[in-house]
Amino acid sequence: MTYSEENPGNNLDKDKPEEPTRAGSTNVKNDPFVVGIGASAGGLQALQLFFEHTPPDSVAYVVVQHLAPESQNVLSSILKRQSVLLIADIQDSMPIEENRVYIMPAGKHVIIRDNVLYLTDRQTEINTLRSIDLFFKSLATDKGKKAIGVILSGTGNDGAEGVTAIKKAGGLVVVQDPETAKFDGMPRNAIQKGHANFVLPPELMPEEIFNYVKVAPLSEEISESIKSQNNETIEQILGMVHDRTGLDFHNYKRPTIIRRLSRRMAVTNQYNLVDYLDYLQLHLEEVETISREFLIGVTKFFRDEDAFEVIEHSVIPDLIDEIENSGQLRIWVAGCSTGEEAYSLAILVREYLENTKKDIEVKVFASDIDRNSLEFAGKGLYPYSSLHEVSEQRILKYFVKEEGKYRVCQQIRKMVIFAPHNIISDPPFSKINLVSCRNMLIYLNPLLQKKVMAKFHYALQKSGYLFLGSSESVGDMKNFVEINKKWKIFRNTEQAMPLGLENFSVGLTRKDYNPDNQKFIREVSHNLALTNHIAEALNETLLEELGYAAVYVDENFNVMHGAGNYNHYLTLPDRALTMNLLKMVPADLALNLGTLLRKAVRDKEKITITNVQVRHHDVMRRLNLVIKPYLEDRRLLQKFILVLFSEEVSESIGIKDPEKHWYEQQNESRVSDLELELQHTKEDLQAVVEELETSNEELQSTNEELLSSNEELQSTNEELQSLNEELHTINAEHQYKIKLLMELDDDLNNYFRSTNISQIFVDRKLEIRKYTPSATQQINLIESDIGRSIYQISNNLIYNNLIEDIREVIVRPTPIEKEVQDKVGTWYLMRVMPYITQDGRIDGAIIIFIDINEIKSLQLLHSGILNSSVNLIQAFKSIRNQAGQIVDFEWSLLNAPAQEFLKCSEFQLLSRRIRQEFPDFLQPDLFNKLVQVVETEQTLKTEVNQEYEGKTYWFYVVAVKLNDGLVLTFNDITDRKLAEEELETNRYFVRQIAETSPDLIYVFDLATQQEIYVNRSIAEALGYSPEEFNHNPEFILLQLAHPDDVPRLKDFLQKPSISEDSPIQELMYRVNDAKGQYCWFRDRFTVFKYAPTGEPLQIMSVAQDVTGEVTTQEKLKHEKEFSESLLNNSIDGIVAFDMDARITAWNTVMEEYNGLPREEVLGKSIFELFPEYRINDEGKAIQKALEGEKTILHDHPYGLRQGYYETITIPLFDNEGKVMGGFSIIHDITERKRLEDERINTKLNQQKEILNVILETQESERKRISEALHNGLGQLLYATKLKLSDMHPDKKEDKELQTGIDTLLNDAIRETRQLSFELMPSILRDFGLAAAIQEICKRVNSTKIQLQCEVLGLPDRLDEILETAIFRICQELLNNILKHSQATEASIQILNQKTKIVLRVEDNGIGFDPEQVDITGLGLSSIRNRLQLIDGTLDIDSEPGKGSLFTIKFNKTKLK
Predict the structure, then answer these.
(1) Which of 1207, 1228, 1249 is the endpoint of a domain?
(2) In terms of residue numbers, what domain contains 1148?
(3) What global pTM score does this model have?
(4) Which of 877, 922, 869, 879 is nearest to 900 (CA)?
């Protein structure tokens, strides 16, 4: 499957052709799609690949390639050999036609207008070639959505603007993948525009163009038709595929079905579903094709390498570690296609088993419904291109190279079992440890996916793994846990449940498929009906005109159909009506016809017979018969046999004797009656015979029982007699064989004694049977060694693997042949062959040594001479035609350099023809010269320029005749030729550079002290004409030099201090120009020419006018001095830095702050000098400055220095507004900070004093009110109570009133005491804080809330202010708990720590959110005021529903 099938929405943009293109329609003829192809350097190879894969698809192609005007365009001749399309060079005003390729001529531009190509001359002054942009823009304007732009290999950016125009016009843009392009400039520039629909290798581009032109419009049209109409036609097509192939695609996702249907419709030129359905009826083989198209098979070895790493390191170890030795690991690869994934898993399992030394049985079940894919997978033979994802180590270990391909080794192949299996309809495998089904579920609808997942769950063992595609999931199944989310690896967590019948299909499969079971019936379309009527009319006309009659019969010879004048040959029977052909032909013909029909059915071949004589009344007819069976053609809906009748001229039978003729007629009538009577008699006789046979069978059964005993006795007797005869025969044969063996032994002994070939015969135990006398030269044998093992006998060979070779031949009966050498230097051809018995059994080996010393010596000498040469030496044999003319040369020898140059071994090229293998290697002119060498025997010596594999070579060729051929020597002189050309070019180039260079260049002769060459720039720089310089007898620069500089310049020109250590010397001096002003010159001198002794003869100088540079340096020097003075006199620390945070400025204040002198920090990174800057605020400020943001840090310490500082960090910008660095100013604000702190502390102390006065006033007032309540109102109420108790009313009403008043007085007294306690508890004043807190707890405890109180480590008494503050805070917090918290439990804890007193008040109430509740309403404002007075802190920990905790801390030191 291609990328478009897996991600159909990601390839093409929404821009589509307006109308579907239909082959043969006027729309295509007048307005076809046009593909513009732009290419430059390296484009030839890309164009070849492109057109090798381009089909005739009703599209026109225009190739625009960068060529110089003088170049010859050979592209047409090259593409004609690669493409099936017509190739044409563009002529001016040429109209375009479909299925043609148009090549732009060299030196021209091409545009398109109204489907006509126009040429224009390319302007020579244009520096950059824009041919592709020019054509693409005209293509976009003329064709719009029917414009397709293709960018191939090339340099520059031509075509980038053109593809933008095509994209904006709605067309398609395809760009070559830069990784595959020889030059990637044009593809990369086109891709950067962002308009490429596809980035592909050239060989894949035609398929996407075909999809865009034909498939995509068809898919859109079919989808729209399905939306607007019902999808009955698709259902009928799928039903026809089901009936024909047994494969049910009804539950496949419709977009996938539509894309595949559209592709086949485009290939078969059908443009609606009804026409395609008719096409399927007429071409039943297309049903098989579309079914294979539906089977989307995409797989490769280790697909998604990261996913297989998870399988390798996590899944497989987990599965195998759980299996005991001799156990079984079962893996199921569902939808295995061609088997790569199954083999990948098998390799991973094998590697783990080898690493862990574990021995278990492994079965990988690989299943698919495509039998062709399974057959391919079962062979396990793959091309090298399929192994890109396989490491070289695995290829060497698990694959065997066979005929250019790679076969899976037997060890892995045995682990994999390929089986046809329909996951939808067939039962699943069971007890599986790992199920792999990748990228198959995405093509199934959700219902079918659910059924398949149920089968996978049934197949898996508990804790088994499921491996799906990256776009697939287990759906809503709860019995899988996700192991790896990215690569969709799941683990089964539940035991498999039985599958219901709903999970199995009852439709046809390939196993129960019968081609005769045709259920598809529909009325054909008008066009198809018309076609059928035309065909029938044509058949009737041909049969009538040729005098033939056609009869179609079934396998029982019953007539199914007839055509032509069949009544002339067939008649219905007079009595029993039957449609059997043999009953409807004349009796004379029936016997022959029946025999021929049965023979045709048996042999499945056509039978033709002529001149069959048939008597009809008084005429003798001569008939011709043709019988052809159609019983195995799957394209036909029904089996039949065709019988064709034709008749030659009939002959009349003359009546010489009428009376005799009458008797003959009477006899014929009588004969007919007798035949009828005979038939009845035969039938009666048959009945009697059947009865007799029944009786006879009963008698035979009895007779057989009686005879069985007799037969057993007779057989025993016969066996004894035969055994005796066999013994006599065997004895005679043994005597004869003994004689033959003796003769054969004599022959062998004489052969061994007479031959010079060394031969040794050993058995399977390597024991010597026989040997020839000459074998003692290689093996130290004596007569008594027969029967001994050859392993125990020494030999004279410089070869140590003789025994291993013998054993290998015995185990693997394949002969071994090697060249070996003995210890005296003699070469032998050693051949080890299996010793094969007559019954084909290997019973040992034969070792043969043949002396090849002379041949080997010549061979080594010959090879040494050839391969020691650096030239390409080749020997050729002439190939002549029938006329004796040489048409080619055939290799007979190549040396090593020639093999290396041609990149082929001698074995590959021997007996191959050079013009067939390398058609461009020998130019026609050179080939003709070589023919003349053979014919005239004249030696050829010449230099040739040769193009080979895209590179130009120069060779010095020497050709000498050898027999009927020649020896050809190529001496590579490419480097010499290139050097010569480069030298000449450089001479011209250097002079042009010198004349056009703005530098001042001159060459000075040291001997004559005169300039040899002065370029015109020197004169122009000084304001003189070149003539004044060139015709001056004295060196002009010495005349114009400043008087102070003349001595230095003269000394240098007389004795230049140039050496190998200092090859370039520099000198600066002043020169007076034509205006009388002095200019600064900087001369750089080097030796231009040496004497043979190594002394310099001439020097060359390249001078520059550096007056401006000298002036600028002076200015920079002054500015630098001013900047340094400014920095060093600043009272603030200043540091500047560049974009890498390296320090560029560091003033004296910074030296004082950091203790680092300027010399140690300049050029170093701030973050390296001060690592803390990587995390602190100063470092962040520097980072922000480098991003263009200003930062000010207030009141912060600087390093380890005491005090406070303010740092301002500002970015520095260049002239273009880009950040070029930044600087920081560090200002010491310690004194200012001290003054501010004093002012703030003074203000705070004043506020505390005011607050203290307020609180003291409050406490005094509370104390007064408390005493008034206790001593005044409290005593008054108590006295009233006493008075009331003295009253003794008589009436019941008065007593009740007295009781009520008493109760009220008690409540008032209690409330008064409580209020007095809360205002100022006397216990706090008298006994201290601990007793007061305990009293509070006693008073608060009730049935509604339980209060605990704990005071730890508190001294007897504290400061009065502190005790009062703590008591009031506890009092306020308890009031809040009672009023608002709804708590049932609360606690107060006071801890006396070393430096602090800690108060904790906690409850289990409803709690609150401190950030959302206004805490001032909870009485906490007064608590904060008291804490502010005594420098305490308050922390609130509370959440809704979780109670509250108040923690208050008082610092003892501050209280002092």
Answers:
(1) 1228
(2) 1111-1228
(3) 0.35
(4) 869
